[in-house]
Amino acid sequence: MPDNKREHWGSSLGFILAAAGSAVGLGNIWKFPYVTGENGGGAFVLIYLLCILLIGFPLMLAELTIGRKTQKNPIGAFRDLMPKNCMVAHLIGIAVGFTGLLLFAFKQWGWGTIFILLSVAIFKLGWSIVGYMGVFCGFVILSFYSVVGGWVIGYIVEILRGTINFETTAQAKDFFVGNIGNPVWSVSYHIIFMIACIALVMSGLKKGIELSSKILMPVLLGLLIILIIRGISLPGAKAGITFYLSPDFSKITGETVLIALGHAFFSLSLGMGAILTYGSYLDKKQNLYKSTLSIVALDTIIALLAGLAMFPAVFAYGGSPEAGPGLVFQVIPTVFNKMPAGSFWIFVFFFLIFIAALTSAISLLEVVTSAMMDELKFSRHLATLTSGILIILLGLLSAVSVTGWENIPWVETVMVKLFNCKQGNFFDVADNLASNWLLPLGGMFISIFTGWIWGTTYAIKEIREGSPEFANVNIFVLLAGLKDDPKHNPEKVTWTLATTWGIFIRFLSPVAVTIAFLYTIGWI
Ligand code: PHE
Known about the structure:
Layout (H helix, E strand, L loop, with lengths): L11 H12 L2 H13 L3 H29 L3 H8 L5 H19 L3 H17 L2 H34 L7 H12 L2 H20 L2 H28 L5 H8 L8 H14 L6 H6 L8 H29 L10 H11 L4 H35 L3 H20 L9 H11 L6 H39 L3 H5 L2 H5 L17 H24 L4
Helix pairs in contact: 1-10, 1-14, 1-16, 2-12, 2-14, 3-4, 3-12, 3-14, 3-19, 4-7, 5-6, 7-9, 7-16, 7-17, 7-19, 8-15, 9-10, 9-16, 9-17, 10-14, 10-16, 11-14, 12-19, 14-15, 15-16, 16-17
The structure holds phenylalanine.
Phenylalanine (PHE) binds next to α1, α2, α12 and α16.
């Protein structure tokens, strides 16, 4: 499709809800609460918030800026903006090639070959390799994401059939393991989940992605609030809130910081071009900086709220908060079952997770689809169908291997022989590869590219369109709320008594009062 015919979002709100829909997903509702539970509660939350603020926010703005500037999918976007002579990329290519040779010397044939091929690709493609990496990553993430999405649909069906009726977590665990270990069950629901994604992405940007996000995101927020009110009004809920929010700094290690960072990438959909792709459907009027603020705030607030919806109930009904990944599938059905109208609340909970997963999954599918549409000139229908089917096929490996390698022993043999990689199942391999390696690496390259290769001067020029205050207004003046005061000259660094007062009155006092308040009621 020629550039001028590129589809655009129908409205600013539609775009923000779609991007927030991408960010808010299983990462917020399924992963964030248990990762917080395992890593020191409030202390982890603090580090996570710092990662969001210092790394997540700037990177999201960078992705949106690249997307809007180029109006292309990630591959085309980097190709458009990269310089003719990609010296830095070539240096990286040489380093990768040498590493490959070194790996051969140590008889690591699998990894050696991958590194050599990668080095050749970097030489040939320059910085657009970051775009290819993103598309590949979208493919890998969606392949296992849709398996979990499928379990959620499976649970909704089981709730409606009345089979989710557990007295103990042990029963819930047997049920969970029994079902996900049953290839027919997990493969069927994985395919059903993917069909839902394909249908939405195929319907197009406005009628599929934007419209569904505009309906589903408010529903998600509503359901979440209902669940929180239900949770914190239970007797005994306070212990859950204390566990969730009181910081235990003794649990913080270097690894915790890495987990927090990796999770920040995953949760904000950063590092693989999903946000870049959504940005490519924006016009110049959109305020990129304010959009970033809204998306990051929505994602963070919803993650924090999800913990608040879950932990009070878990504590009030004697569940274990450290149940890990099984928290949602095992603990929630058991503890909610003990409440009055339990099945209803379990249904609400799983429906909420389903919405969150679906709006994220469509953004992953859109990355692969848009790349096929732009690069291979496929129609939207053909691109969605082709990428959807390929992802379904890759996902089969995850779907049949969550409980071990019994169903696909040959894949394990290949992995061990070629890559010396021993992991519980294919699902873990895909998750680990994407979340712990590809996303952070992608994020790193996107920031290096924006900061040093394309250059902040050009990036700022793009950001300025639609959000002049981002580049023109002094931060102190802005924070102090004095942007419209003519005496505060935005050209100079203006740190005056007035700005200091403004910042204190707007930020410090409210935070201090809140802390004092929480202390008084005994929450900290
Ligand atoms: N952000 C989504 C979540 O929190 C996952 C995701 C990652 C979506 C990367 C798109 C791209 O679940």
